[in-house]
Every structure is written in structure tokens, then in C-alpha cells.
Design a protein that fits this description.
The protein has about 140 residues and is mostly helical. The chain has a single domain, classed as Dehydroquinate synthase-like - alpha domain (Dehydroquinate synthase-like, alpha domain). About 60% of the residues lie in helices and about 0% in strands. The protein is built from seven helices and no strands. α4 crosses α5 (about 70-85). The radius of gyration is 15 Å and the shape is globular.
């Protein structure tokens, strides 16, 4: 189990999931959501939020998994996996009035040492949380 935990942690630091974890911690604290559920639902929106900064690594991941070498395809496959696992595509428990404080909480946890391709600002984190909540009032052109 220790070896598996080590390998998992090693993978996390290379997989750009830092913000998905920060968001999951904020959501778990606010709504008592299971961490794995919050991470799984958050990850596609976080990866989209990285835009072109994560395009090449996501293309390589897609290709390694046997899919067309496309970041959009990889993110689509993550969503499809979540669906096959019976996970929701969004978290309707997120109240619009909580998004501001959730964004601040997630950004406080995140820091420049997080394993991410680029650092989100407050507006970007808020946009990602809106997507996770299923609130599609996003700005045009803000995703990958």
C-alpha cells in the first residue's frame, strides 16, 4: 500500500491536478462532498481552464491512452469515464452565492509550487467553479 500511495502521489505531481484538489477541499468543507467525487467532477473543468498551457501534455496523454492526440478529446474522455462510472457532470449543490468564497478558499490553498501548467487568478477560478456548478454563464473563449 505504501508503494501504491507513493506512485499515486508521484502521478499527482505530474498530472496538473493541483487545482482540482484545492477545489475538492473547498467543496468538501462547504458541502461535505466526498473528496474523490469532487476531484472527478472538477478535473475536466480545471483542465479546460488551463487552455493552451496544458494542450501538449494533454495531447500526449490522449495519444498514450489510444485516443486521437487532442487535448479536447482527452477532456471529453474524462467526462465520458465519469459518466460511465455514474458520476454527475456538475455539482448542483454549489450555491451561486458560495462561489466567491469557494474561489477564495481554493486559491488560498493553491500556490505557485502547485503542479499546474499555469496559475489561475480569481476570475479564472470563479469561472471554473461556475462550470463545475453547472452554471454556464462563462465568458466566450475562456476554455481550451
Amino acid at each position: 500500500m505504501q508503494q501504491a500511495a507513493f506512485q499515486g502521489g508521484r502521478a499527482f505531481t505530474r498530472a496538473y491536478i493541483g487545482y482540482a484538489h484545492a477545489i475538492a477541499h473547498a467543496l468538501g468543507g462547504a458541502y461535505r462532498l466526498p473528496h474523490g467525487l469532487a476531484c472527478a467532477v472538477s478535473l475536466p473543468a480545471v483542465l479546460e481552464g488551463y487552455g493552451s498551457a496544458a494542450r501538449r501534455p494533454l495531447e500526449r496523454l490522449a495519444e498514450s491512452a489510444g485516443f486521437p492526440a487532442s487535448a479536447d478529446c482527452f477532456i471529453s474522455q474524462l467526462r465520458a469515464l465519469n459518466e460511465r462510472l455514474g458520476l454527475p457532470s456538475s455539482l448542483s449543490c454549489i450555491r451561486p452565492e458560495d462561489i466567491e468564497s469557494l474561489s477564495q478558499t481554493a486559491l488560498r490553498e493553491a500556490n505557485p509550487a502547485y503542479p499546474v501548467p499555469r496559475i489561475f487568478d480569481h476570475a479564472e477560478m470563479t469561472e471554473v467553479l461556475r462550470k463545475i456548478a453547472g452554471n454556464q454563464t462563462s465568458k466566450a473563449g475562456s476554455t481550451a
